[in-house]
């Protein structure tokens, strides 16, 4: 582990990565920690907080860029370790590393742009009647130390220095990571890079810690620790809900931003039941063994001959596909079980099933089909099959689509393929999609999430535990900020972002209008 | 009741207002509703939602202004009814009516200003390598029908057409109000005015309903109703926590914005232990019988002769003050009980106690004193005494203040009085105050909350259930919005705020920069 810049070897059992392709244990073993290390990391984070949050946005931007540089400085060792621990291909991991450093640098840009502190100023009007108007200034302050849970499926981009860490650090919050047990070596390499950047930036070590724990207790202890102020999590629905329950049962409840489960409905209109769309769908479904939160697990296809032909094409393509090694043996087993549960539901037919891959942990991709009425009658068909499996729902038109969409749980994405002549029908559907999903994709596929300013990777429960936010993209910084107002403070006491001299050069909203707007 | 524009007389008991000064029941009795009326109002809100949220910000602004006009159109009848039901003085109610209509008109300004929809656009770059960059556009959409609970202490400004209602309607959410049982007549008058504005704006009646219920069941049914998407509440800690528990236990949990309890610490530095400050404090404490969420219930005064003299002055002034009629007999009894509990704690001394007022429901104001060490040892001394009572904590300087502040629960406000020579000490305290309170007041008093763009009337738990927001001021609109991203949608399908033609003239952030900034 790494606690406030110090290497710590836990004594509560050990965690060892496993090559998911062979099942072979990888060296070294990592000593696992428990409540003592949670206490030490949380306290160090708390002690670092006031120093860290007093840094200017420009200083924090430089810090984030140093982390990106240090992660890149790990070179091939990082990619090789992540490959061994996750089974993910090298090319994917190089791309993911670019995404990881890219989002650190994007948050640096956000900090330099000047509106992340959300400054609002309503100046005094001493001559207002019947009472003078006070001077009121608002800025957003970081909430406090943040607990981040590394994900299984993004060992770089949603783990030790991933999106949650980057946005929390950008907000001014120290971070305590609970590294994912599937890739402790990758986590420690990245943690070392972050610690290097902490030191190079002259920041207190408590700004960043990374814990390893053998079971789920360490995560519960972290979320329950009184000095932790918010939680970022990407993982399973059961895991996210367990942390949410811990957070809500605290004497002082804290927000949990858990990105949990989504089956990402796809709506194919009649004019788009083409072979190209079938190929695009199967490609998106099987990409990375289907291990994406945005995997298209539900596809609405109209009944009739064109739909039948489309489904047959999909079935043939899936039948020709081979399984890929999944992230862990447990994830592989859970996928097989989830797909079997869907297959066993009355009315569900198998459309196509590929072959298992060459390793013992590469289950076959599969696609199933069901009538919309059976789908509506059986909510269990909405359960996520995390991996390369999907359910096609056959329907009789937009009224069916509306009914099915309204019956859906919250989703990260909804995808539409339609021709211009069908836009009137799409327009009927759109308001329902907006209520169920955080992102609406047209003519493409939900896998592949741009990291930019407009992205929403969030959505109504249970896609996330808090559908007011996003975990990808620059809006994610807002999860870790809260507003504070200062009334009639003398200039000598005003914090920099709301000081009349504006030393941090923040964009300011004065009397409700953004300054400098033409 | 008023359900979707229709008058409805409930059959589950009746609610009758009581003159809090005399205990006399007021005419008429209002038929109370239950689950059936909740269902009817929630369904009407849901049915109105898509129509209402499709209105332009400009149309919603005009609607809010019509509500303000209609509330003013109620004239003296409204003030007289509110006075009879609440016991509040006429002048106060006229001011409160101005605040109510003022905040409706302020939200209209916000809608016209153009940034409330939060538009962010990252345009496509087809030639990006290795993959083309999609077009991604983000806007915020309203969350859905909102349940609003009228407060006891603001029969106008935080009740039927108060701050929660105004911000939810501004966001594009239909509203179902649970009117406060202490002022059902006031609530019905205002509900009628809102319904008049709904009709005059050509909106569906379901945009607004106002329910009356005899017990707490109707509120729980409302918060638990599957079509309700968020909750605004101002009231007691027990009431807020009960609604929060209902919301979290739903199959789909929803956000609850409950403004609950706060004792609003005041820090008096040695150079400000003046008679003027004593007078200001007692004035703020006893204003409106102390029935404000921002009432200064905790005052830090240094030990020593100057502090002793200040406490004696406060004691004398409080001793000379008379109680005022409280909002309800129940609130009066709860105040007496809460003050008695504080008085009974070991180490607590009474500094001064006024006389009861002339009505049977006007308990005497009181001020107590305790040593900081006893205060730290007894968390029960942080319990709110809702009414004109305060606890003075005597201490030995900034280290004591820091320790006591860190031990405080979350607060709406923190107030500081200090001379320039003491600013260095205040600067040490400020970071601790920022973590505990939503608003920091200097040289004034926390009662009196400006409705503007910079105000924060919120704070960490248990001041509110969600310290990331405010319930007063224009930022309050954000509570009822969530972001949605549109990826590669053809222009024909893009909603107005993210359409390339920008027909609603929204401020837009393009590639992370606000358009039009010099």
Helix content of chain A: 25-40%
CATH superfamily of the largest domain in chain A: Aldehyde Dehydrogenase, Chain A, domain 1
Total strands of chain A: the figure is: 21
Oligomer: homodimer
Which sequence of strands runs across the widest sheet of chain A?
Answer: 14-15-16-13-12-17-18
Low-confidence stretches of chain A: none
Which radius of gyration of chain A do the C-alpha atoms yield? 24 Å
Report the principal-axis shape of chain A. Answer: globular
Question: Which pair of chains has the greatest number of interface residues, and how are they split between the two chains?
Answer: A-B, 82 and 82 residues
What is the CATH fold-level name of the largest domain in chain A? Aldehyde Dehydrogenase, Chain A, domain 1
The chain-level structural class of chain A is alpha/beta
- The name of the CATH architecture of the largest domain in chain A is 3-Layer(aba) Sandwich
Largest sheet, strands/sense/barrel of chain A: 7 strands, mixed
Q: What's the end-to-end separation of chain A, in Å?
A: 52 Å
Beta-strand proportion of chain A? 15-25%
In DSSP terms (H or I, runs of 4 or more residues), the helix count of chain A works out at: 14
Domain Aldehyde dehydrogenase (chains A, B): 13-425
Pfam families (chains A, B): Aldedh
Biased composition (Basic and acidic residues) (chains A, B): 122-137
Region (Disordered) (chains A, B): 117-137
